[in-house]
Sequence to fold (60 residues):
Amino acid sequence: MKEAFDNSRFMSKMLEKGIVGKTILYIVTHLPQWLYTMDSEAPVMSSSEQIARAIFEKQQ
Fold:
């Protein structure tokens, strides 16, 4: 329990430190998503999404 408390306190101190903290926060929040999208295939639009996009573009 004490180790978790010390780790969270260290992380909060790092996040207060400007660019280093912002970089760490960005990596922690975006890296899992980036790793997931790096290995996955491009999303395929469904037919209903294609119809909705065509209607939207026609209205523009």
User: Anything to note?
Assistant: The mean pLDDT is 75. The chain is about 80% helix and 0% strand. The longest helix spans residues 19-39. Residues 2-59 form one domain.
